[in-house]
Amino acid sequence: MNIIIRRNKGDVSIAAAEHIAALIRKKPAAVLGLATGATPLGTYRDLIQMHRDGLDFSRVITFNLDEYIGYRMNLSLPYSKDQSYARFMYEEFFRHINIQESNIHIPDGRADSPEEECRKYEALISKAGGIDLQLLGIGRTGHWAFNEPGTPLDSRTHIQGLSKETLDDNYRLFFHNSGIARQDMPVCSITMGVGTILEARALLMIATGKRKASVISAALEGEITNRVTASAIQLFTGPATVLLDRGAASALKNR
Ligand code: GLP
Q: Is this prediction's pTM over 0.85?
């Protein structure tokens, strides 16, 4: 595992964007695993700028980590009223680059059978030849994607209930004028499993800010446990890069 500590959030974002861009330049039809949350926003903005400067996404294939159950992108609503992860990705990244719509994959939170959707998602990842590089953040409960504490480390794409901490954190990302009250937040998700994530050929995990310091130290230096699903990074046998700013790295014993 290669842990890189940068001065601030902006430096982490650009380093992550450069890492992803290097793969796309080497492999124009790269299969990227993508993440939501506030942390990757800067990386997406930097990749959009790189696209304006010539980076080509026309053959890139993407798989997002997760989606809320009951949610699916609805472009007839204003962005503020559509809190799906699909809409987040569309507005913050996809609509600004030349990716083909058919190459974008996000679990459908409104599928008739969420169980079937999970199976289909795994099959689509396999059909694409697996994920070349998976971008990851980390949640306050130490989770990857929506793999809350207790999720088996060999889990596949599955339906996952969300913890109070995760809902509290993610509600902050909902638009204030979304019309959705905290108690009406979706409490379930479809998420890639930890085992699915560990099958990617490379991992790129990013975290910024002091509030991530304790989960980062638990995940990178603590016990490998499904109480902190991101600690599975220690089991990963391929190349794993962790990009942190000084705040997120501040509790690492070996920094
Ligand atoms: C959600 C997402 C995770 C993300 C986490 C942290 O739970 N499902 O993929 O890593 O939020 O988000 P943030 O970057 O906003 O701290």
A: yes
Domains in the chain: boundaries: 2-245
Question: Which of 153, 132, 152, 150 minimizes the C-alpha distance to 141?
Answer: 150
pLDDT of residue 105: 98
Please report where in the chains the tokens 């199976």 appear, as a residue: 119
Closest CA relative to residue 34, chosen from 70, 69, 86, 71? 86
Q: Which of 9, 12, 34, 36 to mutate to test the pocket of ligand 1 (most atoms within 8 A of CB)?
A: 36
Q: From 41, 83, 85, 170, give the residue whose CB has the most ligand 1 atoms within 8 Å, as the site to mutate.
A: 170
- pLDDT over threshold 90, residue 176: no
Q: How far is the CA of 76 from the centre of ligand 1 (A)?
A: 26
Average pLDDT over residues 177-190: 94
What CATH fold (topology level) applies to the domain 2-245?
Answer: Rossmann fold (3.40.50)
State in Å: Cα 255 to ligand 1 middle.
24
